[in-house]
Amino acid sequence: MPADAKMSDIAGLTLPLPVSRRAFMATSTAAAAGYTLATGPVRADVIKTSAEGLIAGAAAVKASDGEMPLYFARPEGVANPPIILVAMEVFGLHEFIKDVVRQLGKLGAFAVAPDYYFRKGDLTQITNFAQLMPLVNSKPDQELFADLDATVAWAKAQGGDESRLGIIGFCRGGRTVWLYSTHNPALKAGVSFYGSLMDPPNAFMPKNAFDLAGDVKAPVLGLYGAEDQGISPEQVRQMESRLKDAGKTAEFRIYPGAPHGFFADYRESYRQEAAKDAWRRATAWFKKYGVLD
C-alpha cells in the first residue's frame, strides 16, 4: 500500500460540506482558535473546557531523536493522578484534542496528548489530504509505541500513577488504542473512537488491529458510527467476534445514524446525542477498570 493511500479512517471523513456556513466559524477565526482546517469548516458551537482547577499547558518529552511536544492537563492539588494518553487524529495536536485533554483533567486524570507526528512538521497547518496522508501513513508503528512509552515515562516522572494507565483515541488515534493495547502490558483500559480495524498493511504499519486482536492485553471499548463510510458495522462485528473467540475483554457500541467523526464537536460530522452517550460510556469504562476513581 503506498504511503499516500486513503486509509479506512480517512475514507470515513469524506462527507459533503454543509449547505449553510452560518453555523461555522470564519476560516481566520478557526485558525486563530487553534483548530485544524484540513477537514473544512469549523463549527461555531464547539465545546470549550476551561483550565480552571487544572494545571495545563504545553511541555516536551525527550524522544529517541528529538524533543516531542505534548499538551497535558491534571487537577490541581491531587497527588498521583491516573495517567490517560490521548491519541490524536491525523490532523495534529490542535484545539479539539487539547479540549479532550482538559475534559479528562476535570475527571481527575493526568491526561497527556503527545504530538507524535512532530518529525513530519506541524500537521495543524496542513489544509489538504494530498499533503497530509503521505506523512501520517509513513509513521512506523514501532516508533509510535516508543513515543507513547516515552510519554508515559514523562507523566510518571511528573507524579502520575502509571499503575492506573489508560488510553483514548480518535480516528487514527483510535487505531493507536487498539495497537498500543497489544504493546504495553501495564495498560489498564483503552477507548477507541472509530479507530480503523482492517486497513491493508504497509512497510510502516505491517499489521492492523484485526490481525492483532489475539494480542490485546487490556479491556478496550470500541465506539463506532453505523454510517461510517470507511469502517463498516460488519467490520466492527467481525472484530468483536475475533476478540471474543480469543477470550479478550472488549465491548462495542455502534451508533445508528452516526458518521465517522461523530464525537468531533468542531466538524460537521458531530452528532451530539451519540457523542454524549459515548463519553458517558468511556468514563464509565475507565472507572470500571480502575483508571479513574
TrEMBL record:
Which top EC class is given?
Answer: hydrolase
- Where the record annotates domain Dienelactone hydrolase, the positions are 71-289
Does Hydrolase count among this protein's keywords? yes
KW RNA-binding (keyword) present: no
- Give the EC number(s) listed in the UniProt record: 3.1.1.45
Q: Where is the signal peptide?
A: none
Q: Which GO terms describe its molecular function?
A: carboxymethylenebutenolidase activity
Q: Which UniProt keywords apply?
A: Hydrolase
What protein name applies here? Putative carboxymethylenebutenolidase
Q: Which organism is it from?
A: Methylocella tundrae
